[in-house]
Amino acid sequence: MSHAAPTEPERGQDLLAQLGRVIVGGEQELSSAETLTPEAHLWLVRRSAEAHGATADLLQQAVGSARAAGVSWARLGEELGLSRQGAQQRFGPATEVADDADEDVRWLGPVTAVDEMGELQLAGELGWHTVEAGMFRHRMVRTATQWEHRRVVWTRPARHYLTDGWEVGARAFPWLYLVRDTGRSAATG
Length: 189
Fold this sequence. Notes:
The protein is α+β, with helices and mostly antiparallel strands. It has 2 domains: 37-92, no CATH class; 105-185, no CATH class. Helices cover 39% and strands 23% of the residues. It has 5 helices and 6 strands. The strands form 2 sheets. It has a 3-stranded antiparallel β-sheet, with helices on one face. A 3-stranded antiparallel β-sheet has the order 4-6-5. A hairpin with a 2-residue loop joins strand 5 and strand 6 (175-185). Mean pLDDT is 81; it is low at 95-101.
C-alpha cells in the first residue's frame, strides 16, 4: 500500500505541530488550557516569543543564503508572498555597518560559498577567525595564533560537531562555521 505525499497544508500543519512540541517541551508540563496558571501562560508566551525570534533569524539566514546562491529578489518575493521590492526591503542588507574601531575586529568580504573557505584559510593563517557570518561576509577577530575554519551543513545539533577542539564560530543557515585554534603563532603579512 502506497501513501500519497503530504499536501502543502498538511506539511504546514505538521511543521506547526512540531514547533508546538518544541515550545511546550521545555521544563514545564502543560496539560490543558483550562488548568494553566497565569505563570504557565506567561511561560508559554515567553517560549513562543523565543521560538518566533529563532525562526525569524532562520528565515533571514535562509534568504541571505538563497541570495548568495543567485536567487533573485523577485523569486524570493514570490515564495514569501511579497513583491520583489517588499522582499528586498524586508530582507535586504540594512545600511552598511561601519568598520569597527577595534583593529582586532574586521569584516571579511565580499565572499561567496564558492570562495569563502579559501579566504577563511588565508585569514586563519594570519590569526583571524570567524565570530559571525552574514550575507557575503564574515565578522573576524584576530588573535596571536592561527585558526582553522570548517563549514558544514547544519543538519544535527551543534554539539555533534564539537570534537577535536572545534568550536562554533558562527551559524548562518544552512551552514555552521567551525573554528579551531591551532596553537601556532599567526603569520605576519
